[in-house]
Amino acid sequence: MAAGWNKFTGKSPYPELASNSDHSSICYGVKTNRNFRLGWIQGKRDEIMEQSVIEWIEVVLRKFAPSNNEIGEWLRDGIIICEVIDKIFPGSLVRKINYKQSQFSSSENIQNFLESAQKLGIKKDFLFEASDLKDERDLGKVFRTLNLLKEKAS
């Protein structure tokens, strides 16, 4: 069945159908990839908007983004989002970016981004919570915030 799905969808970014060995249970993709695809299945994420934000980040920072299922990990430490805000609005970061690889540093960077975005006029209601990114709970909110920043920069 998965082969038929691939033939039907071509290069679809959506997950493949997968089943167990006796085909008694079918699900969308492998379980390890569930967090990545759950938002789209539930209708909480907008793939087109997210892709445009990712492409915008690549242009602004001149860095290539990883594949879609690794985007959360790429953004999780807060360095990329802080670099984006610093590049498009120089001097607007509340604190310097912390490049150390630790949970404390990532929390500090995410908080730095959120405070800086609020200082730039993005209302607190439209900002994601630190746990949405750090724990990859709701990447849709993260991308909506980044999309607002993108629109503000245009």
From TrEMBL:
Gene Ontology MF terms: actin filament binding
GO BP term (any one): actin filament organization
Pfam family, one: CH
InterPro entries the UniProt entry points to: Calponin-like (IPR050606), CH_dom (IPR001715), CH_dom_sf (IPR036872), SM22_calponin (IPR003096)
SMART domains in UniProt: CH (SM00033)
Residues in Calponin-homology (CH) domain copies: 47-153
SUPFAM superfamilies in alphabetical order: Calponin-homology domain, CH-domain (SSF47576)
PROSITE patterns in UniProt: CH (PS50021)
Protein name (record): Calponin-homology (CH) domain-containing protein
Annotated source species: Strongyloides papillosus
